[in-house]
From TrEMBL:
Pfam families: Cu-oxidase, Cu-oxidase_2, Cu-oxidase_3. This is Laccase. Its cofactor is Cu cation. Keywords: Apoplast, Copper, Glycoprotein, Lignin degradation, Metal-binding, Oxidoreductase, Repeat, Secreted, Signal. GO terms for biological process: lignin catabolic process. It is an enzyme of class 1 (oxidoreductase). Residues 1-22 form the signal peptide. Residues 34-145, 158-306, 415-538 form the Plastocyanin-like domain. One of its GO terms (molecular function) is copper ion binding. Its EC number is 1.10.3.2. It catalyses: 4 hydroquinone + O2 = 4 benzosemiquinone + 2 H2O.
């Protein structure tokens, strides 16, 4: 991925020994349409500054970041800074109608947040409708000046953004699906830094090329910005050493394959020790159920300097599309670094013990082609989007926008991964779950088998959490907690819930505001697999939501 001269100067300044401990970083994002050709067809796509993927945001831990976003397209937009804690600054979190009204055409909004205690790889993306299919980019948070990485210092760093590509306009794809009540069409290709690689029946298949020197160590910052696909990532002939996920350091472990759900990041060390040669970089989807998926393998190339064009490309074999075992091995290998400098502060006591079942359903629909429509739900409640932001309603005490009666457990327990109820209809509401400031939460996310069980990458805004346990089948509250890892569980902001299984997470509600929780498969978010936590203010201004900015968009 190429950097503009402005980004290059900023990146060099971040590495300069004269840099101060924390600074204010200014960025200007202009949302524009850009005609772009992929798969031998051209279409206008929504971009930031005309780039696909969009510009990388560089900063250091504890820097204050100011991003002025100007909307020059016909659609409303917002931007979510995925994984940024947004301590007390929920107004800058970005999900439309949750923490802000969208930025209307011709308007601007200044996102203002501080990267408190965070370092590593994150991403930003649009957070309204399906605009994030092309409106996304990387966030690189370097350590404070003078603070070393807890792993061997790399010689160079590279950002690799994975995505999906539709020949059609993605807004048209989801709008058609909502009108018919059916599932939307899957993507036509997968991309690596915006490129598909060679494709059948198309003479132009531009590929991402990673040019490397022999005998160097590269830090690869890999981001899954896809809309709906969990992805495997491999580089032929090379192992990768994982050192961080979701901007949280891990115990290093070596693997030949990375596994990332949408919204997840993985930072890994690559040692270039093959001398010369051209090696394929490949991404392919994971889907271990009957749901349709884009099976196209996106490709790029790792090319050593001085490699002759006549040297054949070294290929690789990807895991099968239903390679569940590969995802489980990768997940089980992830452990927090849990060092003195970077401890794993896992809550050992729990104030709120929650069980959320997640899955899809079928609701009646008089205007749909077959009289029904696909929906998705948490604890059988399909989330209805409000018409003004929940955070704004909470802050000003506006009534009638939401209720705070989201159930902490299923209202009617059943065999979640066994025989399913015959009634697949869901309830609806704009409900939040209320948490006292600094309370501790254990949330068991239980996948169900309604229609078809499926792996769900779930994302919690405003917090990092610890993934203390996971398993297949139904969660057993008497037996499974005894197997929790409360010492060094991986710390994340997005976690995959295995197909017909469960994942248990713990976090401390030390961030006042309204925080979205949802499946990061965009189709499921659209269908209603989402809710929000409302964290009350604590004592005094340092434990309270900051006042809204003057330029906060209005609905």
């Amino acid at each position: 991925m190429f950097m503009s001269w402005v980004q290059m100067l900023l990146f060099v300044s971040l590495l300069s020994p004269t840099s101060v401990q924390s600074e204010i970083r200014h960025y200007s994002f202009t949302v524009v349409l850009k005609n772009t050709t992929r798969l031998c067809a051209t279409k206008p796509i929504v971009t930031v500054n005309g780039k696909f993927p969009g510009p990388t945001l560089y900063a250091r831990e504890d820097d204050n970041v100011l991003v002025n976003v100007t909307n020059l397209i016909k659609d409303n937009v917002t931007i979510h800074w995925h994984g940024v804690r947004q301590l007390r600054t929920g107004w800058s979190d970005g999900p439309a109608y949750i923490t802000q009204c969208p930025i209307q055409p011709g308007r601007s909004y200044l996102y203002n947040f501080t990267l408190t205690g965070q370092r590593g790889t994150l991403l930003w993306h649009a957070h309204i409708s399906w605009l994030r299919s092309t409106m996304h980019g990387a966030i690189v948070i370097l350590p404070k000046k003078g603070v070393p990485y807890p792993f061997p210092k790399p010689d160079k760093q590279k950002v690799i953004v994975l995505g999906e590509w539709w020949k059609s306009d993605t807004e048209a794809v989801i709008n058609e699906a909502l009108q018919t009540g059916l599932a939307p069409n899957v993507s036509d290709a997968h991309t690596i830094n915006g490129h598909t690689g060679p494709v059948p029946n198309c003479s132009y298949g531009g590929a991402y090329n990673l040019h490397v020197e022999n005998g160097k160590t590269y830090l690869l910052r890999v981001i899954n910005a896809a809309l709906n696909d969990e992805l495997f990532f491999k580089i032929a002939g090379h192992d990768l050493t994982v050192v961080e996920v979701d901007a949280a350091y891990t115990k290093p472990f070596k693997t030949d394959t990375l596994f990332l759900g949408p919204g997840q990041t993985t930072t890994a060390l690559l040692t270039t020790d093959r001398g010369i040669g051209k090696y394929v970089i490949a991404i392919s989807p994971f889907m271990d159920t009957v749901v349709s998926v884009d099976t196209f393998t996106g490709t790029g190339y790792l090319i050593y300097n001085n490699t002759l064009p006549s040297i054949p490309t070294t290929m690789t074999t990807m895991p099968p599309v239903n390679g569940t075992w590969k995802t489980l091995v990768f997940a089980e290998s992830l452990r927090s670094l849990n060092s003195k400098q970077y401890p794993a502060n896992v809550p050992l006591t729990v104030d709120h013990s929650l069980l959320f079942t997640i899955g899809v359903g079928i609701d009646p629909c008089a205007t749909c082609s077959n009289g029904s429509r696909a929906v998705a739900a948490i604890n059988n409640i399909t989330f209805d989007m409000p018409t003004i932001a929940i955070l704004e309603a909470h802050y000003y005490g506006i009534k009638g926008v939401f209720t705070d009666d989201f159930p902490g457990k299923p209202l009617m327990p059943y065999d979640y991964t066994g025989v399913q109820p015959t009634n697949l209809q869901t309830m609806h509401g704009t409900r939040v779950y209320r948490l006292a400031y600094n309370s501790t939460v254990e949330l068991v996310i239980q996948g169900n088998s309604m229609l078809a069980p499926e792996s769900h990458p779930t994302h919690l805004h405003g917090f990092n959490f610890f993934a203390v346990g996971r398993g297949l089948g139904n969660f057993n509250p008497a037996k499974d907690p005894k197997k929790y890892n409360l010492v060094d569980p991986v710390e994340r902001n997005t976690i995959s819930v295995p197909t017909a299984g469960w994942t248990a997470i713990r976090f401390r509600a030390d961030n006042p505001g309204v925080w979205f929780f949802h499946c990061h498969l965009e189709v499921h978010t659209t269908w209603g697999l989402k809710m929000a936590f409302l964290v009350e203010n604590g004592k005094g201004p340092d434990e309270s939501v900051v006042p809204p900015p003057r330029d906060l968009p209005q609905c």
